[in-house]
Amino acid sequence: MSAYRDFLEPNGQYAATFGDKGSLAIRPTKKLAIVTCMDARVNVFAQLGIREGEAHIIRNAGGIAKDALRSIIISQRLLGTREIAVFHHTGCGMRTFSSPELRSLIKESDPANSALSAVDDIDFLEFTDLEQSVRDDVQFLRENSLVLPETKVSGWVYEVETGTIRQIV
Ligand SMILES: [Zn+2]
């Protein structure tokens, strides 16, 4: 059994109540990009009251700004967003390992496969202090010359234990 077998029935229900969303513009109406973690417990739309057409949701492991930069540039320069909200969250897997540990784990999974040494070139961008990681990412965006200088950048923590958010920056 594959998880994708469960797609069609709920999609049928979604499409049946799709309404006029087919005419939504490509540019996000809130001019907002949200950077957040890929964590399966994070549901940006429900947790922040965001609807289709309103914001870009850029997700990666940790919600790391550096990793999101490619998408942020496209979001700003081609699709008109002017605000970025960075969300990291409690219980994040990015605080449970180090890049050297993960590289070793991958290479030791198949020692005869020299191609796995490609992982030595990947910085997994893990962090230890949750709130500091949010401050660091906001600073990274504010100082990055490829991010438009008029961008409003805020930084947040989402708590997976309670469903609440709090602003850090
Ligand atoms: Zn996470």
UniProtKB/TrEMBL annotation:
GO terms, molecular function: carbonate dehydratase activity; zinc ion binding
Keyword Metal-binding among UniProt keywords: yes
Keyword Lyase (UniProt): yes
Enzyme Commission number, as recorded: 4.2.1.1
Family named by the database record: Belongs to the beta-class carbonic anhydrase family.
Its job: Reversible hydration of carbon dioxide.
Bilayer-crossing regions: none
UniProt catalytic activity: hydrogencarbonate + H(+) = CO2 + H2O
Residues given in the record as Zn(2+) binding sites: 37, 39, 89, 92
Cofactor, free-text remark: Binds 1 zinc ion per subunit.
Protein's name in the database: Carbonic anhydrase
Keyword annotations of the record: Lyase, Metal-binding, Zinc
EC class name: lyase
InterPro entries the record matches: Carbonic_anhydrase (IPR001765), Carbonic_anhydrase_sf (IPR036874)
Cofactor(s) this protein cannot do without: Zn(2+)
